[in-house]
Structures are given as C-alpha cells and as structure tokens.
Write a structure and sequence with these properties.
CATH topology of the largest domain: UDP-N-acetylmuramoyl-L-alanine:D-glutamate ligase
CATH superfamily of the largest domain: Mur-like, catalytic domain
CATH architecture of the largest domain: 3-Layer(aba) Sandwich
Number of helices: 18
Shape: globular
Largest sheet: 8 strands, mixed
Oligomer: single chain
Structural class: alpha/beta
CATH class of the largest domain: Alpha Beta
Strand order of the largest sheet: 8-7-6-9-5-10-11-12
Number of domains: 3
Distance between the termini: 68 Å
Helix content: 25-40%
Length: 495
Amino acid sequence: MKLSQLLSGLQVIGSLADDPEITGITADSRKVSAGTLFVAMPSERTNTLDYIEDAAAKGAVAVLVSERAGVAMAADHGVTPVLLPNIEWSFNASVGLVCREFFGDPTLNMRVIGITGTNGKTTTAWMMRQALSELGRNVAYLGTLGIHYGDIHRELSNTTPFPVELWTLLAEIRDAGCTDLVMEASSHALEQKRLWGVRFDAGIFTNLTQDHLDFHGSMEAYSHAKKKLFTEYAEASEKNFVGAINGSDPIGRSWLGTLPETTISFGPSATFEVRPRTVTVDRIVATLGKEQFEVGVGGLFNVENLNAAGAGLSALGYSEAQIVQALTKITPVPGRFEAVSNSHGIGVLVDYAHTPDALEKVLSSARALKPKRLIVVFGCGGDRDRTKRPKMAGVTCEFADFSVVTSDNPRTEDPVAILDDITQGFKFGRPHTVIVDRREAIHYAINMAKPGEIVVIAGKGHENYQIIGHTKHPMDDRLIAAEALASPRGGTFEP
C-alpha cells in the first residue's frame, strides 16, 4: 500500500518527499524490515527519534514523527519523513487511523465491546468473554490480564495498548477468526486517543471513584475521559452503538439521558437488574426477571459485575433467557476475589483491589460472609496518586479487624515513605502493623489467622511480579499464601 493511501484524509504538515510502498508498520525499531513504516511514538522516558537511524539501517522507507527535529533526522538517513500534528493527542489518533487503513479495519466486521470505569473493568470484561463464548461466539479479551483468544494468552505492558500495538493485535485476532472483542478502555487510553478509529458496537460504564488523579488532575477531568467512550468514540464508530450505564453510580446516573447514543441502565431499580438471593464466598444465586440462576463466583460486589456483564449482553440484543444461560457458565476471574484453598478452616482471598472504593467493596463482601475476624494485607503503588493512600487505611479501619500494611509495587519511590503515607489514615487505636516485605507480611497475616477467620490479600491479584524501580521481580500473592498455609502453624503471630 502506498504511503499516500495510508495518509489520506489526515492533516500532514508539509508535503511528501516520496511516496514509497509500505509493507509493514511498527513503533519498535528492532522489528523493522524492508518496506516498513516506522512510528516514532512520543515518549516521556526516551527520545524515540534516536531510533530513526537504526530503523533506516534495517530498511524503513518512511517514518511518522510528531516534531520537526524528526523530519531532518529522517531525511538525513534517506527515509521519507511524515510530520503529523500532536495537539491534544492528535498524533495518537492519526497513527490509529493509519494503522486501521493498513490492516484493513479489523473492527469493521467484528463486534467490539469497550468497558470503562474505575473498578470492575477486568471482571466485567472476563465475564462478558465467557458469556459470549457460551452463546456461540469466538471471543477475544484484551485488557489488564493480557490478550486471550482460543488457546493464546500473552501479557501486555498496558491495560490498553498504544495505537501500533493495539491495531496489530486487532488484526491478529481478526485473522484468527474472532467474531467479538471485549476490551478494557482505560481513562488514559481514552484521553490519549489510543483507541481512536476503533469501531465500538457497545460500551459499558462500571463506576467512577478516585484513581489516577496524578494524570487527570481532577475528578471532573477523570470523569470526562471516561465519558468519551460514550460520546466521541461512540459517534466516530459509525455503528449502532449502545451504552450500558451503571445507574447506581452517581456519575453514571448523571450521564443517563444526556448521552447522544442509545443507552440502558443497570443496577437496583434500573432498566436491567440482576437481583441476588444468596451470596457466599464462591457462588451467587440470583434472579433476572422471572428466571433464577446460580453463578460460580462469590462476593456481594460481583453482583454489580454480573449486572454490568448482563447489561452488556442486553445492549448487544440478547434476550433474558440467553443472558441467564450465558451467566450460569461464568467462572472466577484470576486474582479477583480468588480463594486459596486450605484445610485450616481459614478463608484466604486474593484480590486486585487497589483503590479505596475497590477495597471497600472487597472487604464489605468478605465482612458479609460473617467471619469471626477479618484481616487484610494491603499497600499502595509507588509513582501513583498519593492522596488515596490514607483513604485506603481509612477503609480498612471501617471494615477490617486487623490490617497489615505492606509494599505493593513501589516502583521508583521509597517503600517506607509510601507506607508512612498510608498509616496517616489509621484512626487512633485501630490495630495494625507495618511490614515492608510483602512475602513476610502475607506470612504474618496467615499465621495469625484462626479457623473461622478470613484473610484478604489486596492490591496485586493476578500479578505474578512486584515492580521495584523499573524492574519486575517474580512475586505471586496466591503462591505466597499457599506457601504460608503449607508452613507449620504455631500461632506465632498474635497481635
């Protein structure tokens, strides 16, 4: 395909020096081969223009750049430069449209369901994938848990990838025969236009609580970024987009009736409602309309996720009978209210909850199971919103009997400083301890637990690593919990 064809309809600064044939697109100079269009993606960590020389040496014939310095560098190495404006993330949007054209628009004939919100995105998306599979669809999932389709599973560096990686994946799953894609749409990706060009059929909004204020700056800006899925992206999809909005969430409720696209609401007293009858640690008995059904997931907060997934199916046109049929086949999501089995009579739950709202939902669900005592292990990630740290402690004061504060992913911050921020939120006299080493903290909590008590290990869920600096070190809360449960229990740790 000619370069000019890929750029058709886009705003290009200056004129093309040449119009080469493009045989591939990549933003990774290591993957360049003859005929490749190299994309020098703007980056806070590195100057991607420095890779133009390497890309040219490997056969790149053109390069997309967002700054004028890249034009001269490309020309100096015999590569056709294309300068695209980068106002309010427009470079990302343009790259997305270029990729869409090159890959033949994988989302045109594939149903795409986008899920956004602070909490519940991963669980809702996973449930949707399982449900649609039960309904006979060939479904792919893309989000926090990586990319899944058929027997393929790979981790991703971002919940929602940047444009070149995203469209490469979209083409891959289309070519694998997938009929549907359920994907998480993070607020960063929506704001940064990483998803621009994707033709969404439906969108689901789960909820909105404090998170990512280090990036968005305010809750209003954070909310506005989420809403874009149902306004800008919905309109640009050029499909009969239908939105499913959590009517029990204050932000979602305020959106209802204001969105330009068709919407349905879900939750208590809403258009769509799954009503719980029995909730245990590992199952939910519920009703939808006149139908009663049982699902193999537990926890009260999962009722909201079932509502979101069911409403998403309704938005796609499925009947109540089909939705009930599909939801009964749902199984737990890795690292979400995931029980670690043992013979000690202790409930051990691993969950990804890493915001105040998510932690509250998990702990309140665990508390609803009426344990003799509820113990929680938690921390906060480094290089992220500091204002939520004491709020996390405040949540544990309300719901947990004892808290073990430990490291999450400290990244480039001092772990001790992070824990100091957290402990500012403990009310006077509330029992807790601080243990920097996460493995030691998990062992401590499990060893102090007695039969009939529950230990919730929150924050990392499915993650099998801990980020210290910029390096991922092997660490899996589920394996550490099993290790602690298998160790001799002498009741050594008693606060």
